[in-house]
Design brief:
heterodimer; A: 11 helices; 3% strand; globular; B: alpha/beta; six-stranded antiparallel beta sheet; five-stranded parallel beta sheet; 14 helices
Chain lengths: 342, 568
């Protein structure tokens, strides 16, 4: 016999008495108010509440310092940097995530208005359930001595890390005669940020760089990537749904290559593509300066590394740095021979 | 009406619920994650909404995954274990997704079949020192009709006429795929020619992605943001759309989200499970019972639950008289690499990975293999032509140590890793080892105060030899790619003893005919408990180098049908 109360009518009707469900012992308090099992289904996407308005956590002077910090992480050069990308403001919105309802954590779905949709669904943020709220309050606010957040010991939150780090930047600036970190010239600011002996600053940079990357290159609905500057100098198409790409855009390049006529056609039915042939060709091309940077393309593994880093640059590097030791095989003055598509 | 409780709503759990519901069973599915598909259980799968989008920030914020602060997994290498280190890694580590529908909500939906030879590896190739090799208790032919049924139901694209003869000989098919392949990405076409130049045979990757409208859901539009993203347009077949949602709509299945299962209790003699214990979303302890208890938590969490369920009759964990629960944990190893180009080859503008290569599956023997100190090498398939989205590229540069500032900016502008690198991933077979295992961490807890799973791991000499043997061949293929000006190949087992960041997990509750050396029988039933079955990849005694979801689905369907028929 079910004592649950949260079932839809259909589910209650279809659940036989063969199951015995009994609530027995309240174990842990939680931040939710429901008192029954949550049966999956229905309106977990939130209602039509309109765009979620971000809030702020930092003071103006703290935000000035944060702008000065992100300016050193992704500086302006011939292209806009993190200041133009509003990265400090986006980080501030994340620190203030729980001042908004829904919390400013996960943008809405499934489409923005950049891929042909009339309305921007990203603007309406996703309500959190109690699990997610506990997780993100721990991450942002820290454990603050609450037993339900300290099952593995105290947790220092992002708010505290930023507040202490930004204050420390001012202390270091004052030591050199400046009124605040934001007044320092870039070269001196870089020296401070590079001081590996300063724990408060390094702890902040450890999360600030990933946070700045999110803000600069993520969707603008999080408050960063203003005017899509992060997608401009990188020539990134961004989210393209629901329009997507045509078959021709997939199969053939925007800028044709020397060897396109040699390539096998697309698999599948009657796609637009060059025809295959048996050709011998040669290439005079070579990279005179190939950056000695071991790079991999594996969305599966990189995405997992990003998630596992949990916003920490140190943890990210612990996983990915060994890859940089791999050698790169290069071809110089290579001759491309004997192609046969038979 | 017979009843079942299924723990985990990923592919194994969902298809079991679907099958039992069709047979008239009453099924409750307990899922530790939340529902991310509005309309689930209320509308047809073609009308399901989604909270996913082409939003990379959701990935960095672990959307659809357990939070590493609340449900960490710990890890250590075998050598660290020998030195007495409790753990050296704590966090998301090798976690799979946690949501209604499981990791299939944001998988790549690559759907190769295992090969005939994979089911008789011990018999065919003999033992390997330091590895617990075993034959499967079932054959390819046992699975083949279920492969067919899953492919037909979920909708798999491919072209039997383009598949190499050895692939068809080893994984024979009863007919053509449900739909033709999606268009081949330009970078994949370049790399496919490189493969041909070294005598290999590229062919379209079987995938549970719509190349045309199927089951009321639209065709893929090749956005490229597949892995770690839910499909915003509902073009990908998965556990929810094809199995769990229809099962709930049948009226015989309900799904309880955020149900954190922590114990299965038994009769005093341990022969029969009586209750499943879980914490609900508010932290209240609840119990539920059914005629059958089916565990489908994925290999790490399935093993953890069996170990957490130790009692007087099962002092080492439920069904663990063999001491094999948690052992033989396997992760595919990856050799990742790519060919560099001088120009943008548009790697992201295609369904993720449109071309497959089977030329390094093996087994390989002979003097060059013997010289590496192993009796044989079994490799795996190669995924050809994937790309990185922008934020992942930025994290990648930061992760390999490229400093912030001008260096970062220049790297992003040059975009070597995104625009100018056609990527490949070699999926390598990982041999089962007794000391590669999941156990309960002695120190670290989850948010309900339960010991978290700890994974102890190191690659076997086979994996190191395999990586050493295959990497130069992969490099040669990449360098033979038209327009390539360089290549990089990164064989993971030669770099670290930690497991790959992969969603390909197996082992931990292997099935077999001998209760002394296996945890479950051929139908996934615990040898020592009459009414508890393991349904997921935990059962695999070996882990051939192919994406595992199709085989997980087919095997779970096979077992569920036997349960419904009363023969399991």
């Amino acid at each position: 016999m079910s004592k649950n109360t949260g079932f839809t009518r259909r589910q209650v009707l279809k659940t036989s008495g063969a199951m015995a469900i009994t609530a027995v012992v309240p174990l842990l308090s939680n931040c939710g108010s429901s008192s029954s099992d949550r049966v999956a289904g229905g309106g977990n996407g939130g209602g039509s509440m309109g765009p979620t308005q971000p809030s702020t956590y930092l003071s103006e002077s703290q935000l000035d310092n944060l702008r000065a910090l992100v300016d050193r992480l992704i500086p302006e050069d011939m292209d806009p940097g993190a200041v133009a990308g509003c990265c400090a403001e986006a980080i501030d919105h994340l620190l203030a995530a729980f001042k908004t309802d829904p919390p400013f954590i996960f943008a809405g779905a499934p489409f923005s208005d950049r891929g042909g949709e009339a309305e921007n669904g990203f603007l309406e943020f996703i309500p959190l359930d109690p699990y997610e709220e506990l997780a993100w309050r721990m991450a942002i606010e820290g454990s603050q001595g609450m037993p339900e957040r300290e099952f593995n010991g105290p947790v220092k939150g992002m708010q505290q890390i930023y507040i202490e780090g930004l204050a420390r930047l001012d202390e270091r600036a004052a030591e050199q005669g400046f009124g605040s970190f934001s007044e320092m010239p870039a070269s001196l600011a870089d020296v401070i940020l590079g001081d590996s002996s300063d724990a408060a600053i390094q702890d902040m940079v450890d999360i600030a760089f990933p946070d700045t990357l999110d803000a600069m290159y993520g969707p603008p609905e999080y408050g960063g990537n203003c005017a899509l500057v992060g997608w401009g100098f990188t020539a990134f198409d961004g989210d393209v749904h629901p329009r997507g790409y045509t078959d021709e855009q997939v199969v053939t390049p925007d800028n044709p290559g020397l060897f396109d006529a040699l390539l096998p056609p697309s698999f599948g039915p009657d796609r637009s593509s060059p025809t295959a042939g048996s050709v011998t060709s040669s290439s005079s091309s070579s990279l005179t300066e190939l950056p000695m940077l071991a790079s991999v393309v594996s969305s599966d593994t990189i995405a997992a590394a990003i998630m596992d880093s949990n916003g920490s640059l140190k943890r990210l590097q612990a996983q990915l740095k060994p890859m940089a030791q791999q050698r790169i095989a290069t071809l110089s003055n290579r001759v491309y021979k004997g192609v046969s598509n038979a | 009406m017979p009843s079942a409780v299924i723990i985990g709503s990923g592919p194994a759990g969902s298809i079991a619920a679907w099958e039992l519901a069709k047979a008239g069973w009453s099924v409750t599915v307990l899922e530790r994650g939340r529902n991310l598909r509005p309309g689930f259980g209320e509308v047809p799968s073609s009308e399901l909404g989604t909270l996913y989008s082409s939003d990379e920030v959701k990935t960095s914020r672990q959307f659809g995954f357990p939070h590493p602060g609340l449900e960490p997994i710990t890890g250590r290498t075998q050598s660290e274990a020998d030195e007495g280190v409790d753990s050296s890694i704590q966090g998301l580590h090798v976690s799979l997704g946690a949501a209604v529908g499981g990791t299939s909500l944001h998988y790549n939906a690559k759907f190769p079949r295992f090969w005939k030879q994979d089911f008789t590896q011990l018999t065919d190739l003999g033992p390997v020192d330091g590895a617990q090799m075993a034959d499967w208790p079932i054959s390819y032919d046992d699975l083949a009709p279920y492969y067919d049924e899953v492919e037909q139901t979920i909708g798999v694209q491919g072209d039997v006429n383009a598949m190499p003869a050895r692939t068809l000989e080893q994984s024979p098919r009863s007919g053509q795929f449900v739909m033709p392949p999606n268009p081949t990405g330009y970078s994949a076409r370049l790399l496919a020619q490189g493969a041909k130049n070294v005598g290999w045979e590229p062919f379209p990757y079987p995938a549970a992605v719509n190349s045309q409208e199927f089951d009321g859901r639209p065709a893929c539009n090749s956005c490229g943001m597949c892995s770690s993203f839910g499909c915003p347009i509902n073009a990908r077949g998965d556990a929810m759309t094809s199995f769990l949602n229809p099962a709930v709509l049948s009226g015989n299945v309900r799904v309880i989200e955020r149900a954190h299962v922590f114990k299965i209790s038994t009769t005093p003699d341990g022969s029969r499970a009586t209750d499943v214990h879980y914490y609900d979303i508010d932290g209240f302890e609840r119990t539920i019972s059914g005629d059958k208890i089916l565990i489908a938590g994925s290999p790490i969490q399935t093993a953890r639950l069996l170990l957490l369920s130790a009692n007087g009759a099962h002092p080492n964990g439920l069904g663990n008289g063999s001491d094999q629960v948690g052992r033989n944990t396997m992760f595919h190893y990856f050799t990742i690499g790519g060919a560099f180009f001088e120009r943008d080859v548009q790697t992201l503008r295609a369904q993720s990975t449109t071309v497959q290569l089977d030329d390094l599956v093996g087994p390989f023997t002979g003097p060059d293999v013997q010289a590496l100190g192993v009796p044989y090498i079994k490799g795996g398939l190669i995924q050809v032509g994937s790309g990185l989205p922008l934020l992942q590229e930025a994290y990648f540069y930061a992760g390999i140590g490229l400093p912030h500032g001008a260096e970062h900016k220049n790297a992003m502008r040059t975009s070597l890793a995104r625009q100018r690198l056609g990527g490949v991933q070699f999926v390598g077979e990982d041999l089962p080892q007794a000391n590669n295992r999941v156990d309960l961490d002695p120190n670290v807890k989850d948010y309900r105060g339960l010991p978290t799973a700890r994974v102890t791991y190191a690659p076997h000499a086979h994996e190191k030899a395999s990586a050493q043997y295959t990497a130069p061949q992969i490099e040669a293929f990449l360098l033979a790619t038209p327009g390539a000006v360089g290549a990089v190949v990164i064989p993971q087992p030669l770099i670290t003893d930690n497991p790959s960041n992969t969603a390909h997990h197996a082992g931990t509750a292997r099935f077999g005919n001998d209760p002394a050396t296996s945890v479950c029988n051929k139908d996934g039933r615990l040898h020592e408990v009459d009414n508890v079955h393991v349904m997921d990849g935990s059962l695999f005694p070996t882990f051939p180098g192919f994406n595992p979801t199709l085989t997980i689905l087919a095997n779970s369907l096979r077992i569920a049908r036997a349960i419904a028929a009363g023969t399991a």
